[in-house]
Design a protein that fits this description.
The chain has 13 helices and no strands. The protein is an all-alpha fold. The chain has one domain. The C terminus is likely disordered.
């Protein structure tokens, strides 16, 4: 029983499951962002953050008030999550899902590792070769992108840098407080960030006009997809509390493998939803990048399993 519990709570396994769920939700996000009523970026990100208020339901399950410093770090990490998400979804909306998002898989682990060095006094915390392969997979996707680099680079760097700093701040918080205590302030920070989107009058009009115009079916799928993404995000944060943030960020590659397969299947069987280029050079680059990611995941998994056995 203890062995089963240890496997279920393993940080690397949780991160793999989490990023798989997020990959599925991102594919559906791409579909929704193409549809009238849910295609406005400001409105989309606002509801993404507003729903995070439900994280407060965890308060009865072990919440203890942390120090002001720790609470501030968790709050700022949540606020940063929404800011980074804005650029993340902006890239998803403007480009091909399998390339734009996988490109962030190359930058995200690098930013997380570099920020970890001064703040956590550690960089990777796992199998260096596996980490490198996953990062190369993301860079392969980025440099295989047909859109001009100068067009996509700012969005990708801002999103990856924001998520990298967020991951490290979360780890700092979880090193000092119980998971629930940190998670509650994190989700509260995301919620407040979404409320600030209502301050500019033009953005406020976009949020409520587009929300009112969305048909019931679109609203249902948006809420369902937010639930799916919410479960994935929760598991990512819990994984961060149990293992190195650089490894959790590097394992983000699993979502890009999911996106690759999902985008291919939609292009082939449901092109009316959205269509991507899977011919010739594009297919080769996407397949190569995805293969590097999977190879890295296998190495990280083997290393993590060996380390766990060594600990016993």
């Amino acid at each position: 029983m203890n062995t089963i519990k240890a496997i279920a709570l393993d940080g690397i396994l949780l991160a793999i499951i989490a990023h798989g769920l997020i990959g599925i939700s991102l594919i559906w996000d791409k579909v929704l962002l193409k549809q009238r009523g849910t295609q406005n970026l400001v409105s989309y990100v606002f509801w993404l953050g507003a729903i995070s208020i439900f994280g407060l339901i965890l308060i009865p399950f072990g919440f203890q008030m942390p120090s002001l410093k720790v609470a501030g770090l968790a709050f700022f990490a949540g606020f940063l999550d929404l800011a980074a998400s804005f650029f993340y979804y902006s890239a998803l909306k403007s480009g091909e899902a399998s390339e734009e998002l996988a490109a962030m898989g190359g930058f995200g682990p690098v930013f997380t590792a570099l920020i970890s060095i001064p703040l956590l006094k550690t960089a990777i915390g796992g199998d260096i070769l596996g980490f490198t392969l996953m990062t190369l997979g993301g860079f392969t996707m980025f440099f295989g992108e047909k859109a001009p680099l100068k067009k996509m680079l700012p969005k990708i760097v801002l999103a990856a840098g924001g998520f990298g700093l967020m991951n490290v701040l979360q780890k700092l918080v979880f090193n000092q407080v119980h998971f629930v205590s940190g998670y509650v302030f994190f989700t509260f920070g995301t919620f407040i960030g979404s409320m600030l989107l209502l301050v500019p009058p033009s953005w406020r009009r976009q949020v409520f006009q587009n929300s009112g115009q969305a048909p019931p079916k679109s609203k249902f799928w948006y809420i369902f997809n937010r639930f799916l993404a919410g479960v994935g995000s929760f598991l990512v944060i819990y994984a961060l509390s149990r293992t190195s943030p650089s490894l959790v960020q590097a394992i983000t590659g699993i979502r890009y493998a999911t996106i690759f397969v999902g985008a291919y299947l939609i292009t082939k069987f449901r092109p009316s939803w959205f269509r991507e280029d899977f011919g010739g050079r594009s297919l080769f680059v996407k397949a190569l990048g995805t293969s590097l990611v999977i190879a890295g995941l296998i190495l990280v998994g083997i290393h993590g399993g060996s380390a766990a056995q060594g600990g016993h």
